[in-house]
Amino acid sequence: MTLEEKLLNDFKEAMKSKESARVSTLSFLRAQISYAALEKKKKNLDDNECLAVIRKLIKQHQDSIEQFKMGNRQDLVEKELKELEILKAYLPQELSSDELRKIIEDIVKETSASGIKDMGRVMKEVLAKTAGAADGKLVSELVKEKLSKPQA
């Protein structure tokens, strides 16, 4: 079963059980996926493309939460947090910092990266290898940390 099919089934279940927050979140997500497919001139997106749409929406929700906190709109913060949890449920299990450090170390050795100038190459490899199971910001920080230290 593809991620798109799972989303449709979960959407139908949420409608049957009258979970309004889930229905609206999944409805919006499915619309965004359809729009992304339309942009790419495809009938359906593969799972990685769907995950990219989900990540984009998660980032938007996180940004909204920050803005609403600054505006003292706790009601909207809570709404965004609920939607964020629903979206995060569709992401693969994230790798721990230790697992990421190990992957980064292996890739630095494979690519013979020697400093910050190689960061782009290492980042590309790490993100390809982790395939959505790692936060890009965390990966960036860990790669920068690794490449800044003198190599042993």
Describe the structure.
The protein has helices spanning 3-16, 20-39, 47-70, 74-88, 97-111, 119-130, 136-148. The chain is mainly alpha-helical. The protein folds into 2 domains: 3-88, Uncharacterised protein YqeY/AIM41, N-terminal domain (Hypothetical Protein Yqey, Chain: A, domain1); 97-148, Arc Repressor Mutant, subunit A (Orthogonal Bundle), CATH 1.10.10.410. The longest helix is centred in the middle third of the chain and has 24 residues, at 47-70. The termini are far apart. The mean pLDDT is 86.
What characteristics describe this protein?
152 residues; Hypothetical Protein Yqey, Chain: A, domain1; 2 domains; globular
Alpha-beta content class? mainly alpha
What is the correct CATH architecture of the largest domain? Orthogonal Bundle
Can you count the beta strands?
A: 0
Q: What is the CA-atom radius of gyration, in angstroms? A: 19 Å
Kindly report the name of the CATH homologous superfamily of the largest domain. Answer: Uncharacterised protein YqeY/AIM41, N-terminal domain
Run of helices and strands: HHHHHHH
- Oligomeric status of the shown chains? single chain
> Percent helix among the residues?
over 70%
**Total of helices:** 7
How many structural domains are formed by the residues?
Answer: 2
Q: Any idea of the CATH class of the largest domain? A: Mainly Alpha
Mean pLDDT: 86
Sheet bearing the most strands, described? Answer: none
End-to-end separation in angstroms reads 46 Å
Regions with little confidence, pLDDT below 50 for 5+ residues: none
Strand fraction equals under 5%
CATH topology-level fold name of the largest domain? Hypothetical Protein Yqey, Chain: A, domain1
